[in-house]
Design goal:
mainly alpha, single chain, 3 helices
């Protein structure tokens, strides 16, 4: 995935996830944090990682799987991407 090296959107997403994880660590270190607060932060991290996974899969499909295809069924690809987003 060398083509991702220059993708600022993906790098920014990873940096946001790092920030969210740092916030979880900080909450876990604080005696004032509630369990619900920490669980909400972890749920946000999970959603962010899932979004990153979806974006990486989509980029991979476009760059490597569909790039040289003679005929691509755009509707089928969109249905596949929607399925991935629903279950990942």
């Amino acid at each position: 995935m060398a083509h991702l090296y220059h993708d600022k959107k993906i790098l920014n997403r990873v940096k946001r996830i790092q920030g969210q994880l740092n916030a979880v660590e900080k909450s876990l270190s604080s005696p004032e944090s509630s369990c619900i607060e920490v669980l909400q932060q972890v749920a946000a991290v999970k959603g962010a990682v899932n979004g990153l996974m979806n974006q990486l899969i989509e980029q991979h499909l476009k760059e490597h799987v569909l790039k040289d295809a003679d005929h691509v069924n755009d509707e089928e690809v969109q249905q596949f991407l929607a399925l991935l987003q629903r279950y990942l």
